[in-house]
Amino acid sequence: MSDSAGRSSNYCYRHPDRQSFVLCQRCGRTICPQCQTQAAVGVQCPECVKEGRASIPRRKPAIVTAFRPGGTQPVVTYTLIALCVIVFILQNIPGVRDYVTTFGVYRPVYTAILPWTMITAMFLHGSIIHILLNMYSLFIFGPIMERLLGRGRFLALYLISGFGGSVAVLLLAPASAVLGASGAIFGLLGAFFVIQRRLGGNNIQLLIVIALNLVIGFLPNLNISWQAHVGGLVAGAAVAFVFLRTRHPSQRMLQLVLVGGVVAALLALTVVGVLV
């Protein structure tokens, strides 16, 4: 049986050739970035915006500025890149370097007293090559995922994926010390794979990219944490699966609960890793 009918809901109703995961908060129809207009809560399609404006009493002319989240400017992606660059500069300033490294790098043995480093580590990098490679990957995949999911969901995906990478390091390599955005970026790859698979797209090239990067992590003398890669990949795929299963506006609360469940599971694993 063909699943074209089910897949059609993943395309903008005004532009059938454009895939999107953002729904109008009033009518629930899928809309691409070009058709999105910011509302008090979420975004709305052009028809709902027009209906809403028509229902407002016109006392005097008003200027309406349309803002389309996740549109042509991937603000969250660029902000994350800027933060990583700023932190990298701080890492190379004498007198500041030691402070940033001590309280930013994730060392599993200090998880109980420095738990925030499970998040801050994803904004630190060990060398210019390290940050260039990671920021290039984020620059490529970040805008794609941000436009598909919207800014809030994208940021949640990124942070949870990075956290998942740290949890995996805690469980699988507790004697190591890690830093870098690789875990979060692998989470984006895992999420993109889940979404592509649901849409029926060609996953072969993406699988090759993921496999090659995972294999590189296992090569000796490269100081690459494959544990963070795997943890980020799994966490990102889990969050994307939740997003796909709770796309309707009426499922907003369920989506928050399920994403919270993913975070709770990671927290539980963290407690286990600390106690063991």
UniProtKB/TrEMBL annotation:
Topology versus the membrane: Multi-pass membrane protein
Subcellular location: Membrane
Positions of transmembrane segments: 75-93, 113-133, 154-172, 178-195, 202-220, 226-244, 256-275
BP terms from Gene Ontology: proteolysis
Keyword Hydrolase found: yes
Domain of life per record: Bacteria
UniProt-listed Enzyme Commission number(s): 3.4.21.105
Family according to the record: Belongs to the peptidase S54 family.
Any one Gene Ontology molecular-function term assigned to this protein's record: peptidase activity
Source organism of the structure: Antiquaquibacter soli
Keyword Cytoplasm appears in the UniProt entry: no
Designated name of the protein: Rhomboid family intramembrane serine protease
